[in-house]
Amino acid sequence: MCGNRSGSNPIMKKVLIIFGVILLCLASVSDVDAKQRSSKSVRKQQQLTEQKIKKTDRQIKENERQLKTKLNDLNRLQAESQSRTATIARLQLSIDSIEIATQATRDSIAVLDSNLTNLKIVFADVLRNSRRSRTSMTNLAFIFSSNSFTQAFRRANALKQFSKWRERKVDQINEVKAQLDERERYLDTLMVQNRTLVQRLAMQQNQLAQRKSETDKIISSLKGKNKDLKKLLRKQQKQAADLDRELERIIQEEQRRAEEERRKAEQRRRAEEERRKAEEAKKKAQSDDKAKKGSPAPEKVVPKPDKKASDTPKLSSDFAANKGRLSYPVNPHKIVKRFGRQQHPLHKNVMTDNAGIDMETMSGAQVACVFDGEVSAIICPDGYNNVVLVRHGNYLTVYANLGTLSVRRGDKVRTGQTLGTVFVDTSDNNRSILHFEIRNAANAKSITKENPESWLR
């Protein structure tokens, strides 16, 4: 039995080993499955996360697009309201002036009417008295019934004076009546003008009320989005500031290069002047030597004047003479944001500063150069697509938010020449808005931003 026990132990060991190997294999397979399941879960979770991120990003962009569209609508409504308010003020001033003129005309009519009435009364009384004094006697009978020649002469003279007086009075009455008729016609004209202006005033007030109602609706729809609006406003302000800095840099760099060119030209002119003087001195010395030896003096050569730097053609400075007569770069157009500091349509305590004017026009409209000049730069700053700078002597015009370009840097351009087309914003109902500026760079140390509306007609 001991032998049998000793023989059974190796068998049991083999069984246990085999069983252990099987368990290990099963555990290994289970671990691989677990790892595979964990890897798939992680990848799936990553995909879900990426989808959420993309969805959130789309929502943010869509939200920004909607906010931008509504802000553009607000800017347009605000600009229209400002324009209509100014029109209403002008109409009201005209109405007030007409009412003053109407009252003055009524007063003058009353005076003329009173004068006419008095003249008629006096004239009628004199005629009646004259007839009563002479009853049915004719003028000749009245004269010949005199007791003496002197009395007859006096009566004839009296009748003559009375006839002249009557003619004067008739002329005076007719003149007053004509003045009265003219004043009444003028009053009718004033009344017609007044009615027309009142109707226009009412129409403008109604349209202003409509714009205000539309503005209120947009503002109401934007309630609760102050954080997003301020973020978009900061972004737009940053883009405007970046554009402003880039324009300042370009203009100053142009000024620096122009100054350097002028300095070099002046140096060349001085060097040429010194060379010419040296040549003249040398020729004079040679001429003096020949004169001393008895040789005839050579014919005096008059040097041709050198072309000075001041004679070189300069860029036209006539731009300034056309203030108020330049055509708008796009037509038709509607100003949606005016020049200078403006109160934000939503945040009353926030002021925005516009270096030019923004004009909404037809989708993809052509942009025309407002005056002869040279394309000095083309840049692509964030938020403004393509920007073209055209120099007109000491002035520059800036055309921002162009989608396509028809010119290159250095091109000479003429008034009305196409520079490109306005960018079409497909995310904003194909809206096209041109940003336009005018800058005075006569003083290199202080470049002035001009109000384009003062230059355009």
What does this structure look like?
- By secondary structure, this protein is α+β, with helices and mostly antiparallel strands.
- Among the domains are: 80-215, Orthogonal Bundle (Helix Hairpins); 227-262 and 326-454, Glucose Permease (Domain IIA) (Distorted Sandwich).
- The protein has four helices and twelve strands; from the N terminus they run ααααββββββββββββ.
- The protein has helices at residues 2-134, 139-144, 149-221, 226-292; strands spanning 333-337, 340-343, 351-354, 357-361, 366-368, 373-379, 386-392, 395-405, 412-413, 418-422, 432-440, 448-450.
- The strands form two sheets. Strands 1, 4, 5, 6, 7, 8, 9, 10, 11 and 12 form a ten-stranded antiparallel sheet that branches. A two-stranded antiparallel sheet has the order 2-3.
- β7 (386-392) and β8 form a beta hairpin.
- α1 runs antiparallel to α3.
- It starts with a helix and ends in a 7-residue tail after the last strand.
